[in-house]
Specification:
CATH class of the largest domain: Alpha Beta
Helix content: 25-40%
Number of domains: 4
Number of strands: 25
CATH architecture of the largest domain: 3-Layer(aba) Sandwich
CATH superfamily of the largest domain: Pyruvate-ferredoxin oxidoreductase, PFOR, domain III
Protein name: 2-oxoacid:acceptor oxidoreductase subunit alpha
Keywords: Oxidoreductase
Strand content: 15-25%
GO biological process, one term: response to oxidative stress
Number of helices: 20
Pfam families: PFOR_II, POR, POR_N
GO molecular function, one term: magnesium ion binding
Length: about 650
Amino acid sequence: MECAQGSRAQVSGSAKQVKQLDRVIIRFAGDSGDGMQLTGDRFTQETAAFGNDLVTLPNFPAEIRAPQGTLPGVSSFQVHFADHDILTAGDAPDVLVAMNPAALRANLGDLHKGATIIVDTHDFTARNLTKAGYQENPLEGDSLDAYALHTVDLTGMTIEAVKEFGLSRKDASRAKNMFALGLLSWMYGRPTDPTTSFLAKRFAKVPDIRDANVAAFKAGWNFGETTEAFAVQYEIKPAVMPPGTYRNITGNLALAYGLVAGSVQSGLPLFLGTYPITPASDILHELSKHKSFGVTTFQAEDEIAGVGAAIGASYAGHLGVTSTSGPGVALKSEAIGLAVMTELPLVVVDVQRGGPSTGLPTKTEQADLLQAMFGRNGEAPVPIVAPQSPGDCFAAAVEATRIAVTYRTPVLLLSDGYLANGSEPWRVPIVDELPVIDPDFATEKNHGSGDGAEFWPYLRDEATLARPWAIPGTPGLEHRIGGLEKGDGHGNISYDPANHDFMVRTRQAKVDRIADTIPLIEVDDPSGEAKVLVIGWGSTYGPIGAGVRRVRKAGYQVAQAHLRHLNPFPSNLGEVLKRYDKVLVPEMNLGQLSLLLRGKYLVDAVGYNHVRGLPLKATELAHAIGELVGQAEGIDIELGVWGEPTQKEHI
């Protein structure tokens, strides 16, 4: 394989050769009913238990049950794991496990020459070949000669392995994903105990199904061990990571944990008012499990009711949270404007997906930055925070909570489908390292003295411009808030033009003040001589980092920076942008951050934009970076097909 870094000597007898690899990318693909997401998840858990660094990319149809055997019905799960730090789920799989003709056809174009293909031959019937668009059986010609092809009757061997349990042929064949998992677990030396324990627990109430899946898993392992078809076993050593306690975590799970942590650190009960929507629903599912932390979850009848309930919870002194995706943000926009006007803490989680409208419900996209920035009537500024990786969703949720509570404002937290469903090893934080968030509730009257003292709900903290937060029922602090414009300080309804101008400017100034308490943007520019800066936000962090690494490996200078805070921007961002001759902004949209940077800093930002429902590819991005570096340096730069250098710079 391309990623091989050498091998051990083959031992005598019938023992198989063991090759040492530094990384490998595996993709499981099949019909949406073949259990590919479960298979990939179990392989990932085995890999996490082994100690490799890893990044995953689940990819599945939007339909609950897409047409069987068709290209739109293909579901896949990709895992990239290594003995060193990695940043992406990988561009091109080294191994493809294809359960039917459609899975082979849908994924073949992503493979590099020499990749390993393991095909379940059982479903390569004339009918299934036609469904997948094949005129002839690709396994019988020479069209796959450029790959290391292994044709295996996974279904047939699975049925044979589990026949003692008396299952129907249909039920028995469903265990083929566990046979494939067992085979791949043998090939790459994955520990098997996590999977057998998982199966025993998951199917504890149906012993025959439990035992059949375990038997199929073990049969796959034994097949790899005994067959001559697979002559080599591969070893990827554990990665060296900073000391700490690690677990594998998805973005949605990390985000849910981060919201709980924010609740604990602020001392505020967490209330989630939400409506299920892909790909954000797992946040509701997870938070509903944590009543012991004072979490209340409310599945509302629609998006508007969900955010309305969350605002009501904030008014009552709770940490109000609502979760959704792009279509839900559109529906919640007026209510978010209400939270801006009333100046109440509210965390709005937007797990972005392809749009517009229903769009691509199960695919990723950085679709909603401009909607988060401007998607409300009137001047209604809202802080925006974006995590860069699945594990970073935890820290981003804590930060969104800090800003919302400290500054009395709704905060948009922009995750996306790639982060939400993808996973990576996550270092469990030490509680003492988390910020303390002080809600600083108002407890006494704040205007006037003696018998004439009053509580004014719109007097402001001099440092943050936040208004006081008084819990309803606090004696003497009765007040009224609502959606109509407020008089400065006293908070009564005001239609005075000068007051409206002042309040609009004050709300903007409050958001601007947040820049005083967020970190300056850091630039990764090892030599300090780069003329090109690549800047991104959100989940483009991995592809940008991998692309930059490849350009540097080729011997060229390029700087990298990444934005967590998108409103307000870090206070030194303008100065950083002016240091570089050229600025490249990769995004999974048509240039939303580019537009903001151009408008605010008058920088000639160059967009690198793909809207495919998939993460950016590091290899393609490396070529774009190289081309811009060549323009800035006045040289010709060529990178190899996979981003590796083929020629040093020349004039």
